Structure formats: structure tokens, C-alpha cells
Amino acid sequence: MMKKRQVVLRRDNGSGRASTTSSSVVRNVRYGECQKNHAANMGGYTVDGCREFMASGEEGTTAALMCAACSCHRNFHRREVETEVVCEYSPPNSSRR
């Protein structure tokens, strides 16, 4: 299974404000079943049944874009993106008395 993870950090340290808000967006990208139509040149529709993208090579190489199971390019596989937003907030006077 080919998974990618992209992390974007945003920090808001407002000038003149005593509170700090921090949020991060985490995106997990997964490539599912192959959707390449192998019978398109004959006017039909058939897929090879490959259920999940598996990279043929190491990340960063051209082989990483080819599926080891069906030999198709990664773009033929259904792309699924999961997005998670995590927010943290610190109140201005967080000390207890």
C-alpha cells in the first residue's frame, strides 16, 4: 500500500495578544484500486482487478510511480485523501491560583 503524508503547520502568535493558537493539517494520501480501462481501444470496458497500488521501487524514483501488481502508472489508481485538522489553544491566563 502506497501512503504519503503531508503535514502543514500554521502558528498564529498574534502581536499584542497573550494567547497562542496552533493548528496543523495532516493529509494522508492513499491509492486504491486500479481504474484503467484495458478494453478502451476495442470499445469495451474492463479493469484488471488490482485492488491497491504497490510501488515498484523506492520513493523518489520513477519506479515508485509504477504499480508492482498491475504495472500501471499510479495515476490510474483511485486517489483517496484523508484530512485531519488539529487545533490547540492556550488561554491568555492559563495559570491556576
Automatic annotation (TrEMBL):
Region (Disordered): 1-24
GO biological process: regulation of DNA-templated transcription
Keywords from the named record: Metal-binding, Zinc, Zinc-finger
PANTHER family found in the cross-reference section: MINI ZINC FINGER PROTEIN 3, ZINC-FINGER HOMEODOMAIN PROTEIN 2
InterPro entries: ZF_HD_homeobox_Cys/His_dimer
Protein name per Swiss-Prot or TrEMBL: ZF-HD dimerization-type domain-containing protein
A GO cellular component annotation in the UniProt record: nucleus
Source organism per UniProt: Manihot esculenta
UniProt-recorded Gene Ontology molecular function terms: DNA-binding transcription factor activity; transcription cis-regulatory region binding; zinc ion binding
Residue ranges with Low complexity bias: 15-24
Annotated ranges, domain ZF-HD dimerization-type: 31-80
